[in-house]
Design the sequence.
């Protein structure tokens, strides 16, 4: 074939070559059997800025993993490298057993990605966008239509599939992006700030769709966000990333547990010290602080909303107040800074950019 | 045996990708009516205003001036639509569409060829509209000249879409678009001798026309459509093809080294 060079010879050669290398890589880098993504000493350095700084991270199969951090922490850079859009300065990662540096085509076939800003062609209809990508990902002809119908249904766009994307709302565009990211049944989908710039009700419905995605598709999800409540609600595990490094990594409840449980403040009826010995017998009580002069008893307990009635059986309180530690407290403790204050400025900037589009 | 099966599968997959990329370009082209109307209107304006205006006084072209510049106007439409089409990649990048294509397992070469096929199609559609108008003003086409015209239009369009893509891959802001118009599109057009005969030119101008690939397209089209030319059709097409190959290599190289994000 005279134009064989252009239509595939190169790709073919590369695929064929790596066919032999994969097996060696598997044994080298694979650490645990359910580890879908293994990031090893990953570094991305720009002129005078280290965006990602010797990052090491394992992500398991079928988990929802959240990368939480303020803007510029390195979240997007990390997932761009994992999706092979950026070349790491040093270090590497394997995705689904393929090396992101040397086997980028294989990696790209294994991942779906939803960018921060919508990237569908708004002159095409939702259906046409999906069809285009089903071709690009070589979804087999026999299952193409079925798969398009499936993902449209999953994100609730079946009825609007024949409308041009320019007629979609912001939330619908995001959902179409998710559908597009799923079209080839990837092993992992990256959601980069999936609710950035959406109004509160679209954000909530987006969460519902993501939860549905977790239920209906066997897929690993990596999402980046700087919204604490989003990470808390959706993720099985959270990595807090700051200045290109993971500084805390655990399940949301354990991360919050680091803060030592919920804080309960009881304003006592009488200003004398009640008998708190009984409380010490409960395993859910971690710490009993001395009563201050104004008659405030401060306890540190697990699951305050459930255990408060029990406490009140033993202590006569005039009023009660309790606070549950949030991921923001965790972030504050890990970095010494408040994520929200930092996020706002950058958020508005990004939002402006998004609006422009 | 297995090699052959895998080989066929990969070629099929890549042809599918090419088809999809081409189809996207074509659909967008058909839907952006304003673009189509605007880019057809300008050549028509040239043909009738300049053609008739100069036609009344212009000497020495052998044929009616309006007919004389007709092949030049066809190539003008191809020059404009192809270079613009290629540099539309700046938009694709700005609106992140390109990123979504780059993250798919599609080679850069495939994306590049898909784009050039799209550019060739739009050029061909516009050339066809102009040819229909040409028939109305008395241009005679037979099967051979039609085939020759189509071949030249496709070659020129391939070359210049590649140029547009190459330049577009280096430029990041939409403002760069103006530069392309001033420094690429207009020089290509004016130096192609689309509006004047290649005879009796001052030396410097002759040199500049000689290094403009569009000159050979104009000359070949004149040969095919009105039967007057400087070079033989084979020579014109040969030189044009050489330019096309060079530009395609340059374009796909630029495209490959373009950053995805």
Sequence:
């Amino acid at each position: 074939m005279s134009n064989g060079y252009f239509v595939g010879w190169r790709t073919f050669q590369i695929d064929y070559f790596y066919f032999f290398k994969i097996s060696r890589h598997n044994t080298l880098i694979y650490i645990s059997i359910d580890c879908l993504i293994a990031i090893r000493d990953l570094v991305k350095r720009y002129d005078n800025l280290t965006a990602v700084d010797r990052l090491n991270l394992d992500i398991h199969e079928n988990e929802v993993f959240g990368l939480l951090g303020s803007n510029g922490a390195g979240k997007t850079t990390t997932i761009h490298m994992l999706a092979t859009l950026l070349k790491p300065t040093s270090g590497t990662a394997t995705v689904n057993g393929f090396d992101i540096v040397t086997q980028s085509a294989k990696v790209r076939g294994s991942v779906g990605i939803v960018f921060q800003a919508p990237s569908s062609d708004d002159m095409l209809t939702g259906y046409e966008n999906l069809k285009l990508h089903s071709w690009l990902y070589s979804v087999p002809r026999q299952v193409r239509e079925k798969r398009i119908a499936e993902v449209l249904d999953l994100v609730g766009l079946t009825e609007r599939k024949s409308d041009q994307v320019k007629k979609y709302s912001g939330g619908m565009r995001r959902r179409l992006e998710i559908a597009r990211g799923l079209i080839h049944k990837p092993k992992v989908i990256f959601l980069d700030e999936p609710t950035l710039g959406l109004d509160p009700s679209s954000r909530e419905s987006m969460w519902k769709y993501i939860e549905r995605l977790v239920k209906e598709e066997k897929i690993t999800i990596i999402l980046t966000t700087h919204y604490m409540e989003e990470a808390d609600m959706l993720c099985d595990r959270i990595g807090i990333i700051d200045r290109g490094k993971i500084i805390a990594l655990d399940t949301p409840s354990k991360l919050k547990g680091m803060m030592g449980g919920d804080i309960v403040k009881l304003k006592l009826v009488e200003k004398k010290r009640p008998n708190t010995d009984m409380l010490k017998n409960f395993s859910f009580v971690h710490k009993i602080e001395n009563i201050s002069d104004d008659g405030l008893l401060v306890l540190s307990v697990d699951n305050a909303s459930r255990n408060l009635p029990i406490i009140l059986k033993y202590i006569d309180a005039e009023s009660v107040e309790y606070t549950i530690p949030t991921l923001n407290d965790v972030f504050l403790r890990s970095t010494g800074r408040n994520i929200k204050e930092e996020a706002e400025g950058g958020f508005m900037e990004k939002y402006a950019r998004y609006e422009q589009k | 045996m297995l090699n052959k099966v895998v080989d066929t599968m990969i070629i099929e997959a890549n042809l599918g990708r090419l088809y999809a990329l081409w189809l996207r370009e074509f659909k967008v082209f058909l839907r952006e009516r304003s673009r189509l109307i605007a880019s057809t209107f300008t050549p028509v304006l040239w043909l009738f205003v300049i053609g008739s205006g100069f036609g009344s006084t212009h000497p020495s072209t052998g044929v009616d001036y309006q007919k004389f510049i007709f092949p030049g106007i066809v190539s003008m439409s191809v020059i404009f639509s192809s270079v613009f089409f290629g540099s539309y990649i700046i938009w694709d990048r700005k609106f992140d569409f390109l990123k979504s294509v780059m993250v798919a397992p599609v080679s850069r070469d495939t994306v590049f060829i898909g784009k050039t096929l799209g550019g060739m199609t739009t050029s061909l559609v516009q050339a066809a509209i102009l040819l229909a108008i040409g028939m109305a003003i008395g241009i005679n086409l037979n099967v051979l000249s039609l085939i020759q015209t189509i071949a030249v239009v496709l070659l020129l369009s391939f070359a210049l879409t590649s140029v547009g893509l190459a330049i577009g891959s280096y430029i990041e802001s939409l403002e760069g678009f103006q530069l392309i118009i001033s420094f690429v599109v207009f020089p290509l057009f004016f130096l192609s001798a689309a509006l004047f005969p290649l005879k009796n030119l001052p030396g410097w101008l002759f040199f500049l026309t000689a290094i403009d690939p569009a000159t050979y397209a104009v000359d070949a089209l004149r040969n095919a459509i009105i039967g007057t030319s400087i070079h033989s059709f084979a020579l014109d097409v040969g030189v044009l093809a050489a330019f096309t190959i060079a530009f395609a290599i340059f374009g796909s190289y630029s495209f490959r080294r373009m950053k995805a994000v």
